[in-house]
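Box 3.1. Reading complex inputs
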Amino acid sequence: MTTRLIGEPVQRVEDPRLVRGDGRYLDDLGSDAVEVAVLRSPHAHAKILDIDVTGALDVDGLLAIYTYDDLTGPLADPLPLLIPHPALTHGRTQYALARDEVNYVGEAIALVVAENRYLAEDAVERIVVSYEPLPAVVGVAAARDAANLVHDDVPGNVAANLVQQVGDAAAAIAAAPHRLSLDLSVERSASMPLEGRGVLARWDADAGRLRLWTSTQTATGVRAAVSVKLGIDIEQVEVITPDVGGGFGVKIVHPWPEEVLVPMAARALGRPVKFTEDRREHFVSAAHERGQLQHVEVGFDDDGRVLGLSFRFWHDHGAYIPYGLIVPIITSTQALGPYKIPNYRVEFDSLYTNTVIVTPYRGAGRPQGVFAMERTMDAIAAELGLDRAEVRARNFIQPAEMPYDQGLIFQDGRPLVYDSGDYPASLDKLKRLVDWDSWTSYQAAARAEGRRVGLGIACYVEGTGVGPYEGGHVRVDTTGRIEVATGLTSQGQGHQTAFAQIVADELGVPLSDITVVTGDTRRFPYAVGTFASRAAVMSGSAIALAARATKAKALRLAAEALEADPADLEIVDGMVRVAGVPGAELSLGTVAVLANPLRYAFDEASKAATQFAVGDPDAPPVAEDDEPGLEGRDYYSPARSTFASGMHAVLVETDPETAEIRILRYCVVHDCGTLINPMIVQGQVHGGVAQGVGGALYERMAYDEAGQLQNASFMDFLMPYVSEVPDSIEIDHLETPSPLNPLGIKGAGEAGVIPSAAVFASAISDAEGFSITAMPISPSELFHLRLQHVQQHHEGEPS
Amino acid sequence: MKPSAVSYSRPGSVDEALALLTEHGSGAKVLAGGQSLVPLLSMRLAAPERLVDINSLAELGYVRVAADGVRVGALARHAAVLADRPAAERQPLLAAALRWVAHPAIRNRGTSVGSIVHADPAAELPAVLSVLGGTVTAASTAGRRTVPALELFAGPLETTLRPDELAVEAFFPALPAQTGVAFAEVARRHGDYALCGVAALVRLDDDLRIVQARVGYLSVAGTPRVLELTGPIAGRSYDAELAEAGRLAATELDPEPDIHATAEYRRQLAQVLTARTLQSAARSAAGVAAGVPA
Amino acid sequence: MTDELHPITLRVNGIPHQVNVPARRLLSDCLRHDLGLTGTHVGCEHGVCGACTVLVGGVPMRSCLLLAVSMDGEQLTTVEGLAAADGTLSPVQQAFAECHALQCGFCTPGFLTTITAALVEQPDPSRDQAREIVGGNLCRCTGYQNIVEAVLRAAELMKDEA
Amino acid sequence: MRVAGQATLHAPIERVWQALNDPAVLVRTIPGCQQLEATGPDAYAMTVSAGVASIKGTYAGTVQLAELQQPTSFVMRAAGAGAPGTVSADVTVRLIEQEGRTLLDYQAEAVVGGMIGGVGQRMLAGVAKKLAGEFFDGVNQVLTGVAAVAELPAAEPVPGAPQVFTAPPQPERRVAGEPVSFILGAVFGALAALAGVLVGARTARRS
């Protein structure tokens, strides 16, 4: 009997290749390719008066220099606005190469192609651009004040204003026995994968065919965009995703300027052309996230139950808005978390600034929304002198109330309806895990020793597995090997392993017989992409359905061959057999042979399928409404997202003198429904928590008033080393299967990072005795907050 | 990020190296460990005409320990100096500080003398050399001269060495009797350059009372700062509270802000670390005096 | 200016390679693009991330902070040189797979080389020592938990082998 | 980035004013200044070669003196670009007479862009301040006659042609102990210096 693999910590099939150094990442490809370097704006906002390339023309190995004037047809138009929205009244996107104005430091102005990157940079250095600097709009506050404009034709720097509400928040707050208001802020951070962006293009002039490798989260998206921008029939464009060195959201953006310019150059020059982004470029010309200013008004009763909540925020989306309103919409809806807020109003402005574009980074707006709601819950507890966990519990949606309709429209344009979840059970698990009930005495004991310790808590709900769809294809070849393909891409999530586990269980074959291919438009041309923790839910479900179709056909064909009733057949370890009848069996490989009647033989297996070997002479070799081959293809397209959830607690100690912040314990309770591979899910949580630690305590984008990013390197953008993450991340799981998909899966990819800002603010506030309202926070900032607090304290004292 | 084109020489002897430096003057740049220089080249912030690679000069790879102190040759890697037990015993501050220098992979290639003459105000060794009153030996075709630490550092990344001079050796004097040292710094991440770093030296009399307290600082000015802080704590027992010394240091120092720390926070760190390191230096001095390993 | 080429010999994973490089050629680029050993990855090109770490005479160094011309005559080990001749994974490689110590795998070669060298010096590291060993390498995927486990597991495997 | 400071100059306010507004003095006192060309009333184009240690760059820039309130205040707007990056600065200078001496107060608002702007944040202010400080020593030397400007060979004004002031050939200049510099020099010098100091910042710890 094949042992069930779903739910097992199966070792990854990806790893033997990767640990040998046999991975094939973008820059490992195209050893014969010429290389590009990009001239990027040193100004945050300026008119381009002149571009003088003469000095660069005599550089050895120079092949071409392109500026806006060299772009033709659709390439000369702005890049696409990927996700339009009715509220997005002033959407602006950048040109592949700046036309007459630059709007952020790092915006592409000229593309240089040379024999190698060294020579390309020599040429870039010799191009002289004259600029007329314009006043830069930096930071949410400056954008909101609108003393200066990023785009002359966008009044107030406002791309969109969106309001959603249920009930009457203002009235409920006014009538509430207790009221509070909070002003909060979250700074910019970024996905920062260890591998930057990159693209390699080969133009086959004979076939008029383009083959493109790109380090992306959506191969099909890039294919469609490149086809349109370069005017090449989509059937003549192949996009292949090689190994991708991390994405975390930034690589869902497409097409990047380089993704259309590199194939343009390859076609023009008749040479393979490669762009490999360097680290400094990634800081100033990829994408960031997170920056928001927030204002919360809340009314609640004596028990801490929220009666009405009004959430107003201002979202910094950078110089352009190619990815639409996805991030602020997620903030505005997912702020609700596991809570029942009877009267809720949310309004946001999405604002232009002269800084790098903002697109989803792991968590995608949720960390900001959770920060607003969880700081509010802590504030309510403090106001009423109640236990922080108790206040949360009193506001929870109860399991019996599932599915629960929050009455809002989610990022996918569909109703925000939670499918399942058990928040009280999660909270109980977390309180046990962190020993919540003995905290007060622990903290008192520590304070007696002059130590400052704090415990933080934060809860979240995460809509995962958004549509529209994904597909899967399962094919059994005549040797019995199983080829599986899905269109979305992988950036290290172990898809080849997790999807193989699903197929092994559905089809009854050994894992080692299965090969999974992702992100190759030649293998599966219909797909959306990898984002919003959707791969396992969407492609996992689609592949399960495709495997079921394959199994049904295998059973049908085997039943004919074995003269048995399909209902009596089972597939075990790749053998189709009549249950309880020893010997009555066929290998799947043989069934595959039978599925493809042949005229010509080229090996033993095919000989067995030729016309004089098999088949009823009186029946058509391939039955009506049947197809040759043993394969199945299916798609999964859910009516709406499924909702994972979790709760984190962190125990910190702050140094009374140096204000350094140490993490003593980090506890996670996580519910993503059915676990396909617990080892992989645990790894996703670990990674998310570490990014959360970075986002809460270390990472920020330090722009100066002029829009210069002052920490555009790993020297000053402080990604955590092992020394900055907790010694151990304690994890407990709850499995509330989703009713929406065949396997009961919910997404897990982003979970770990979502509550970090909130949970650390909660813990540091608990340690310090005053509320933290801005994240991230550094020791220097904590030091100054202490001084302020002492000052206010003294001023507050009656003299 | 790729370097600009550059010429390259790899001298086989010190004399050959000095001749090259004389020939090319300020157009030449010495490549030793290169852990500072190569990123500057890759970012094209430095574009010397010629690199003079001294990695063949094995005769400069020494760490010599004598009664009067530790001599470190221009090609001795941080890791080799850190691993040298006799050196650590003769001058404990050396190893105490080197542990804070970046990460092992960097220490495996980077050289201690190179770090000193690169003169980064956030680097550990310039402060150590300064607080110990050490020296650097500079060689040129014109001969050799010994430059005291306090005359070496002219500003951020600036020394008083001439372009034709090669720093061939750094000398870290041994500790006087009943003298202890300690090093501490606060950085954002382990291995980052310090927001503030402190190297303390304390000498005790026979009654284990403080007769001298001197502290060297990194990351609080354009060059290493050295403060004599004996005043407020002279005569204190080796195990006394030394907060006044910290407060004095805070008034003496005028640090600059950056994106990681305000000037006020740096001053606070200097005050706290001064008191902490002076205390452990004093205890260490007492331990030494009592024949107990520090 | 035109780049002057310098002939150098690198012995990489036991195999001697003769190559002509300009003085400005980074060792990381020489290994990846001149010798085709693309297992060594470039994550930052300023020496902070550690992805490009290779062994020079058995000692971990950042190949992005070394000029190829300066490595003439050196013995280098890259991730491609860690497995046994018959393809058997080294203990550190095996431990990484067993412990799920990699996700996207981009930073992994730098960890593998660093840990391989460290376990020669410290065959039996404590948990804290294991954290120190990997303290100079950045990973954006794993949160390091399983990488630390893998260091300890690799030490076990090496003991079993011995 | 804001840089502000004060200094006492050992000369009456009028002489200080003349010195600070005399291109012949500027070209001589700005560190690494190779050429200063009058392009209009109180407007100059200049070429500066400045830096720290091995990190040197040549910057082409413009300088505009504005809001001149002789002899008490003026604003200098400088902008330049070189391989390592770009810089621009508005420097407000105020002069106050104090029995025969002059108290000078400056406030500079500088923006540093390009590679340096991205990797050099750490010591910008420190370097600019340091160079500005060196300037005041230098100006004092000029004003007190320690360093004479008189023999400076300013090119003969050619009617109709722009006036070009060229710095006399000088021995190898060390940044350390640079005899004279001006805030303008501080700004350009800081740019190049930054490159080194800032990047050097991280790297120095490991050389």
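In summary: Chain B touches chain D through 51 residues (CB under 8 Å).
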